[in-house]
Every structure is written in C-alpha cells, then in structure tokens.
Amino acid sequence: MDRRESLKLFLLGTAGTGLALSGCKTEGSSSSAVDAVPELTIGRTAEELERDQALLSKRFFSAHELETVAVLCDIVLPADEVSGSATNAGVPAFIDFIVQDMTHHQTPIRGGLAWLDQESLGRFEKTFAALSDAEQLLIVDDIAFEESDKPGMEAGIKFFERFRNLVLTGFYTTEIGLKDLGYVGNSPNDWDGVPEEVLRQHGVEYDPEWIAKCVNPETRANIAKWDDDGNLMT
Q: Any idea where the domains of the chain sit in the sequence?
C-alpha cells in the first residue's frame, strides 16, 4: 500500500472527523497558496455566509508562514499520476480559513511553524521553506510519527499530527480530493431487479408481465401508469 492510500484510510478511519467543512468547494486548481479560495455556499444561513466572507476577506498567516504552510502541505500530499497536490486543491487557503474559524488551532499551528523554522535554522541555517527538498524531508521524517525516537522532537510531532489532519481534511473535501477517493455520492444507476439467487433464496419470483414492464432497460425512463383497480398499465 502506498503512502497516499495509507493517508486515505487514515482520514476515513479517524482523522478529521470533527474538522470537515460542510459545503466547502474549491473548483479547478492553482499552484498558488493564496489563489484558491473556498466557495462556501451550501447549507449556510445569511448570517453564516456573512461571517464566512468576512473570514475569507483576511489572512491569518503572514506571507512567510503561508509559504511554509504550502511547502509542508505538498510534503504531506504531493501530486501523483492520479491526482493534484494539496496546494493544487487550495489546502493552504483552507487551513488559513480554518484557523480563523476554529481559533483553538491558531497557537498550535503558528507555534509549530515557528518551531519548524527554528529547527531548520539550527540544522541548516535556513528557514524551512528555503531548505532543499532533501533537507526538508530530513526534518519531517523526524516528526511524522509518534514513535519517533529522536529526542527533543515532541513539540514538532504534536504540531505535525495536527497539521497533517488539517491537510487531509482540506484535501479530501475538495473536488480534487473526492475524485482521488473515487467518491461519487448519490448517483443514479440502472436497477435490474433483485438478483435471481436472492429471489431463489427467499422462495419468490417476479411476475413475468410485471418484470417485462418495470425492469426493461429500453423503457426504464417511462413513467408508470396505473388503472383505477391498481393494475400496472405501462
């Protein structure tokens, strides 16, 4: 199982359950951390829409913090041959919105970004966003797992767990993420009746005349009509 498949199971099983943003839709893709802004319209009252738009009109993160958020987002969920990356799905903008909407995330996330820069400066004398890909992964590998045996990584591990949950929630509640999951929602399909083996199991069968009228692929779009005695006409 590859890393993206593991993250899907992680999200669907435990992570992000209380973080999902109902009605958040980001269409298209953007490589910019600030271009893709969620469109929030579904299931909102007028007052909620007004509040949402007020949050969307401002930024919580500084430009440097947002750059770091974008880099870290794509480390968590890079693009692959099937799907775009977290930044393609507008996840940095999603996280900026969430930390304003759910203010208990603000100190842990901002503090974690500061910790990440401090760790980067200590190791490589550069901020995290300025590091090479290989250098960034050296740090992330030390904080990506709770069972890390690296001393002094506790704060980084707690930050990364929270950040990763936000990334997964943001990504898998967008059009790109839903396509990556293969989720189609409530979609119409063709119903050809109860399978024969199930009918035999319960000792029942369809009336040939009824099945010909009601489970006929050529007439499935027709609206059924009934006579006054309750008999199916067409």
A: 3-181, 193-234
